[in-house]
Amino acid sequence: MSILVSSAADGVEMDFLRKRIGAWEESFRSLYYMFRENACSVFYVCTSHFVVMFTSVDGLGRSRSYQAYISQSTRGLRSSLKEHDVSFTMPLCRSQVEQVTTEDLVELSEIEKRNLGPTRRMNSFSDVDNTPQSLLAFSGNQNVHGLYDILLNYRSFLTFLNVVDVPVLYCPVPFQHAALSAPEVRCMEIKRADHGTSLSHASSTLNDGHSTPISSAGLCYSVEIKDSHIPPWIICKICALMASKGQSFEASFTTEHTSVSLNTALGVVSQIADSEVTVEDSQETAYTFGIPEAIVSPCLHSGLLKGLSYCNGSYTVSLSPV
């Protein structure tokens, strides 16, 4: 009897899993075609191993330029991409170890499978695996679509993801089977130790996603926002809302380790043709990933945003090298 019950339970679980995977594939397919039809210009695919960002920008005339980024990768993932003729670059990689052919990658994989021992090149590959240096950048319709195809069929191509739940999709606009995500929000009132000190104006702080206005009575009002992932359009809207109140505030952020490399202003993302363009001009023309409140400044280079402060209509950012 116990065997029959167990078999029935396994059957129900497998049926649920098949339906869940099918619904996810429909969602991803719907979201990608919205992306290609310009109904959205940015969305994320979040797995337990890496985060993928799809983004597009208006090009010359009516054309659009499509890009995608994988936050971190392994030799196996890069080999799979090359085997399926999906080209990519590694803009954060400081060595030339990845500039090899598909045949090189296949040969190294065969050596590893036969347990013939590691080689110096294989060790070099491992040095960048699952680090910000292993970020992959994809440009052009063919390569971006090739990446989409592999992710859509990830259970066949990326078997290491089969042991976890389906990837989570994030987009600023509704899509098929989408659900609203409600982050955890905590509001606190904090009495400042130096509350006797007179303050010239109201201000606020925002730490780890929480905002703390400081009143003349010496009180700080903290708002802490937590979720597995908080997309940039949410952060931008919160900061824009805080700034619209005319108050100063500070913000600090905790970055999910698998997405660290996506939080950098890469030269391949925003390229200014005229080398004489000023910082102010470059900010106006910088690529914003489809987020109206966001500006990518090329002068920041590869820095991880740790925090920012807003005062008198301008922001000051705190960066950490990647």
From TrEMBL:
Keywords: Developmental protein, Nucleus. It comes from the Eukaryota. GO terms for biological process: nuclear DNA replication. The keyword Nucleus applies. It is found in: Nucleus. GO terms for cellular component: nucleus. Its main location: nucleus. PANTHER family: DOWNSTREAM NEIGHBOR OF SON, PROTEIN DOWNSTREAM NEIGHBOR OF SON. Belongs to the DONSON family. This is Protein downstream neighbor of Son.
